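User: Sequence in, structure out. Go.
Assistant: Echoing your sequence, followed by the structure tokens.
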Amino acid sequence: MTSFSNARQKMVDGQVRPSDVTDLRIIDAMLAVPREAFVPDGQQALAYLDLDIEVSTGPGVKRYLIKPVVIAKMLQAASIASTDRVLVVGCASGYSAAVVAKLAAHVIATESDPALADKAKSVLAGLGVANVSVVNAPAAAGEPSQAPYDVIILDGATQIAPEGLYEQLAMGGRLLGVFAAAQPPRAEIVTRSPRDFGNRPLFDAYAPILPGMERPAAFTF
């Protein structure tokens, strides 16, 4: 077993399984996807730690791969079927999209940083992931041209209610993300029904705020 595959196994056994992630499809996906391929050169040693890893391509808004356990727990709550179409919002360098691609029929992944979106495309192509399409788009915009989606995953936190994303859900579709408008931030699931959208808290979690999903600055005198 290589050092990275050993670290991958330790991540699953030490972080994911103890957090009540029992879906074997998710376990197998996280064991199969080489997280080290999605982090910047020289930082591969950090790939399997319980950290939000910065993957920014230059100055400006910082971008991160969020902690593996947060993604794993949201994916378990999402109950992704092998026939589902999934939107991953703010995919950064593409790790979460690669994991979701093991679970779903097709994945649309958006990223607001053009250089990072290009990197995600390159890494995913290099790994032979054929069922992910990466789109350069603002997080809050989603990708309405490909809607509706059975599942939407926010690959980061939001301080606003992403109503534009809600509208891209299919009936019965689920949106999952870390909602940070109040403290403590919590992962929540939003489900679309014919009449309304229902929110249900899942677990306390921290994740960096996605660009464009920040709370508007309050006006002060």
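User: And one key feature?
Assistant: The mean pLDDT is 95.
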